[in-house]
Amino acid sequence: MRDTGAPAARRASRRNSAARFEAGLFQWVLIAGGVALLLGVWGFFLSGHDDWNGRTKLHHALIQALQAFFLNASPEAMTNWQTWLASLLAPATTASAIVLAWRARILRYLGVRSLARTPPDEVFIGGGDLATAILANRLPTAAEPPLRVAMLDPAANTPLGRLLEDAGPALWSFAAQGDGRSDDDLRKVNAAQARTVWVLAGDDLVNLDIVRELVEAKAAQNQPPRHAVAEPEVQRILVCMRDPTLVRARNEMRPLSAPGVRIDHFSLARITARQLLKEHPPERYPPTTRASHRCICASWAAAN
């Protein structure tokens, strides 16, 4: 397991870098846009018809300068260096403004395209404390390749999301907002192609619904290619269940199965209790001595 070291400081450094980038891009848009507008008005004013009065020439120069921001200026009207320089600065300013306004959506789109090309190693549906503890114990070492992790959660700010920001080069991560019961949201993180999917929604019935969607999505994509030379890797779906009777009832009513899918259920409370009993076994008392009683209380944070 890799030590992430000072996560709060690293997260603050990343946020400061992003803030500086956005501030610098905003300043560039203002300065370059203003210079391009002034040069455009100046140049187009000088290239105006001689029979126009000053007010008409200024009006046409302003319109043509604004058109240069959208690549709509006529090349015939660019007769001096001012107009040519404005025609270069204006589109660059427009492109920078688009990047500044749509930066988050552009990064999200690039993340989705990257997941489509290379499926993730681990997908966490639910980004709570349990998911955070599980991933913290699975971080690769410096000598191991980075782990590709995707997270799907309805909330924007989650403990797992903060861990993904803090992990640095140990992870290639992508976080998306959505509901695991939606096939469209599952496609955002390419859950059908992941090696391991952790279903940690926090509600047993919701977890079962998510598993059904995952199995159906896997079955829909289970058409092997014509020239397949190797068996596809089995996808493992790990589901946290508090009540095992729901799993048995689900299997009796509607068993879920698909080629290339293995579904395992686990109970954090039972795992924690078993581990505590191994580390602190009950004392052996003589037959005449009354044995003590022990109560084990645990929470999701016990996964650490």
Draw up the topology in text.
Blueprint: H1 7-46, H2 54-68, H3 81-101, H4 103-117, E1 122-125, H5 129-136, E2 147-153, H6 159-166, E3 171-177, H7 183-188, E4 196-199, H8 204-220, E5 235-240, H9 244-253, E6 261-266, H10 268-279
Parallel strand pairs: 1-2, 1-4, 2-3, 4-5, 5-6
Helix pairs in contact: 1-2, 1-3, 1-6, 5-6
Describe it for me?
The chain has helices spanning 7-46, 54-68, 81-101, 103-117, 129-136, 159-166, 183-188, 204-220, 244-253, 268-279; strands at residues 122-125, 147-153, 171-177, 196-199, 235-240, 261-266. It folds into two domains: 7-101, no CATH class; 104-221 and 233-274, NAD(P)-binding Rossmann-like Domain (Rossmann fold, 3-Layer(aba) Sandwich). With 304 residues, it is α/β, with parallel strands linked by helices. It is elongated, with a radius of gyration of 30 Å. A six-stranded parallel sheet has the order 3-2-1-4-5-6, sandwiched between helices. It starts with 6 loop residues before the first helix and ends in a 25-residue tail after the last helix. Mean pLDDT is 78; it is low at 1-8, 225-230 and 300-304.
